[in-house]
Amino acid sequence: MDPVLNPFRPGAGRRPPVLAGRERILTNFDVVLRRAEEYGEGDRSWVITGLRGVGKTVLLNELMSQANARKWIVAKVEASASVPLRKILATELAKAMRTATGRHLGGSKLKRALAVLKSFTLKLGLDGVTLGAEVEPQHGVADSGRFGEDLTAFLEVVGDASLEFGIGTLLLVDELQEAPSADLEAINMAVHALGQADIPPPVFFVGAGLPSLPAQLAEAASYAERLYVYQPVGLLGAEDVRRALVEPCLERGATWEGDALEQAQQMTRGYPYFVQSIGKHVWDLAPGPVIAAADVAAGGALAREEIDAGLYRSRWERATTAQRRLLTGMAQLRGDNAVEIGELATHLGKARTSDLSVARQELIKKGLVYAPERGLVAFTVPGMADFVLSQDG
Fold first, then answer.
1. For residue 136, what pLDDT is reported?
2. N or C end of the chain: which has fewer CB within 10 A?
3. Is the full-model pTM beyond 0.85?
């Protein structure tokens, strides 16, 4: 079949042609949008969690796209351990406000929000942030120098500006688990304060990260357990995998034989990243217009080679010898499931769990493993255990 017409899109953060298995989240977000626009009321904020490659960033981008289409004030950032979250947020909020002033002309409350943002950025020492217009700072609002308090004050003002135009404000933070505890505490504080109003302003926060994120938020502020709607994003069910493979092909005049579809579905193991990779390679190899089992076998092999070389090997090669021993022990004991540190230490012949602390912490920093709960460790990428066991060590 013509590779130019290939509908599948493997890659980090790339939107698949069919967002199979995510309908509930998208339906709930439509309620958030309509509630803000029709009643001027904000909803409870979300935290989306899942392993690498299950589509968290894709979902954030979809939420952003839907809000932008309705002319909301929208800012999306990616947290980083090396750059303060306040700087990243201020920069993107400035872009969002510049866009808003182009979409919504003449709003007095929007002008005030720009002035408050100027004050917010200056007090935080972020004088390099530009608003695209000459704006005098609004002194006395969002300029205490305390990130949590100032973020709260700014979001209250921008929420008021949203009401002026019958829209809402959407703030999206990807890789939120990378933010230091102080920044998580500030986010919690702002979300908590906004939600306590008699009528919460139409400001909606969505954070996304690894499955350890809820525990990190709770450590930063105990009330975070009740503060957010937690939206876990996992592997796809068999029917959703079939939909993700079949529907894009049907739109372009191709179909799957029954056994070929079943074979492809089993190969993916429900991992969205695999679905797109296998779909792409099978399409490119199949003469079409009917995809046969032989096409799946050949395309699936190429997809596996690509995934091993890119997704898995790049992670494996970042690990030191000691760290690889820890990864191998994890794979041997529990596969892709979480393993207790004590059990892992015993398996690796260590007298104390602390003997694994350095290697474990470095692997967490490198993004190869995470701590789903205290005393546990697990791979961040589905299928990593099989790759690790295939290595010589």
1. 75
2. C
3. yes
